[in-house]
């Protein structure tokens, strides 16, 4: 199969990256929680650590650049056929580009880091040779990416324009687990649902604002939530059942939020 045939559709999450103030502490935390190991690399945007699970790339941990004052956070990198054009569209539709576009390691593609009009950070990833991280690959891998924002109508057209994503309300689509939520949209890349946009209004954390939330599959949500607290993290929302499985919203030692889920299969 050719590289072009395996390239992910624009807007599909293909990497997740933790921006950490203390990368060593982050690596230790997630190694204990998910069993990740790490490979140190140096790219155009600086040194970083690729997280590996059974030899498969599943995530990336990056140190906070000098001079940055943002909070530690997880962000998805969304696939693009043209990172430079995507970055320009970000600017045209009210977002900002903080890093890049830059050539990736080995000159095999392009990447950028941007924020949407509500301030949520995400990455743009144009890769020619590597498939990206394993997504939806079982326990220890990211299985879902969801934007928490004040109001979905403020960012819906932005993601449609930058990545060509389609959005749909579960109510309009004929129901589903989120059909009862007043402000929820699924996003699809070439007909395949790849994430969600959730408007939470005043429930949005004041200290963090709009942000993407990554969901990592685990075998036992309750046990992982307890272990996260033992490791110095915190439980932002305790384990509870949902139509998709048992979930919990957690934060690591530096306060970067993420979620875990034991999926229903």
TrEMBL record:
Pfam families cross-referenced by the UniProt entry: Glyoxalase_6
Gene3D superfamilies: 2,3-Dihydroxybiphenyl 1,2-Dioxygenase, domain 1
InterPro entries linked to this entry: Anthracycline_SecMetBiosynth, Glyas_Bleomycin-R_OHBP_Dase, Glyoxalase_6, VOC_core
Residues of the VOC domain: 12-127, 141-263
Superkingdom of source: Bacteria
SUPFAM superfamilies in alphabetical order: Glyoxalase/Bleomycin resistance protein/Dihydroxybiphenyl dioxygenase
Coiled-coil region: none
Full protein name: VOC family protein
UniProt source species: Streptomyces desertarenae
